[in-house]
Design goal:
By secondary structure, the chain is an alpha/beta fold. It contains eight helices and eleven strands. The strands form three sheets. The chain has a seven-stranded mixed β-sheet, with helices on both faces. A two-stranded antiparallel sheet has the order 1-2. A two-stranded antiparallel ribbon has the order 5-6.
């Protein structure tokens, strides 16, 4: 893809480090950038992907822009990673201001085509807790009803059939057949846990899911298998390299745990399938 990138934040480094410096883009600045694209008539896009945002007015401006872009191209697909928080040791907490939740729930999700919340974010958006796989499937149906045709819960604390060393992701894709009837494909993906804290995995997941759903628009199973397999290749290469840099017996630091993206180029572009999805 040819990509026009707008940085919602321009930081010296990611916030997994002890310190960072930089600027946060506000809604007026985002609008100014978009106006430049409009004036030059280069505001026709096939995809929009959004992630980490800290400001409600910025998020509302994103919605306005996406709606206008969809008028330019009715086939535009908006992929939203609703970054709000996560669970640690079973307890969920938000790491963005709480007033972003109603904006995501009431304005962003209804215009999104694909969303990639983690379990905690899916619970926030629907107001419903997930304790079982059945709960998760019902939550995904609730999210479908809000707008998106594809919902992927990227991680959860559900018990994996393969055991405690595996992490469950769940996906659901609704499509309309030629006769007008709607069918839903649901999948479960179990991937090996990696004992480290990485930053940027959600961004990578959403970007690769965009790419692989473009390649396989009606096969969420294959798209997720390729996405999660590529993730595993990147994480395994990263942790292996980080441990070497840290030295035996030492815990890798944030710099050593930076995702090995360039080194994983081949795995990102054409991943060997090492994680299989189960159709539910």
């Amino acid at each position: 893809f040819l990509v026009d990138t707008v940085n919602s934040v321009q930081f010296s480094n990611h916030t997994g480090y002890a310190h960072w410096k930089g600027q946060v883009l506000n809604s007026d600045e985002l609008h100014e950038l978009y106006e430049g694209l409009k004036l030059n008539k280069v505001n026709r896009y096939d995809y929009v992907l959004t992630g980490y945002t800290r400001d409600t007015s910025f998020l509302a401006m994103v919605v306005d822009i996406v709606q206008e872009l969809k008028q330019q191209n009715s086939n535009l697909v908006y992929v939203c990673d609703p970054v709000m928080g996560d669970k640690w040791n079973g307890e969920g907490s938000m790491y963005v201001p709480k007033d972003l939740l109603p904006v995501y729930r009431d304005k962003v999700v209804p215009v999104a085509d694909i969303i990639t919340p983690n379990q905690f974010e899916a619970e926030l958006l629907t107001g419903r807790k997930i304790y079982t796989e059945k709960d998760a499937l019902e939550v995904m149906d609730m999210l479908h009803a809000m707008g998106p045709e594809t919902v992927v819960i990227t991680s959860s604390d559900l018990q994996a059939p393969l055991g405690n060393d595996y992490l469950i992701a769940l996906g659901s894709h609704r499509k309309t057949k030629a006769d007008g009837t709607r069918i839903t494909q649901r999948i479960r993906v179990e991937s090996p846990k990696v004992d480290a804290v990485f930053v940027g995995t959600g961004d990578l997941f959403a970007a690769m899911l965009l790419a692989w759903t473009h390649k396989h628009p009606n096969n969420l199973k294959v798209a997720c298998e390729k996405t999660v397999s590529a993730m595993q290749h990147v994480l395994q290469r990263t942790i292996k390299s980080a441990k070497v840099q840290a030295g035996e017996g030492n815990k890798p630091n944030s710099a050593q745990l930076e995702l090995r993206m360039v080194q994983s180029k081949k795995d990102i572009e054409n991943p060997e399938i090492i994680v299989k999805a189960t159709v539910l």
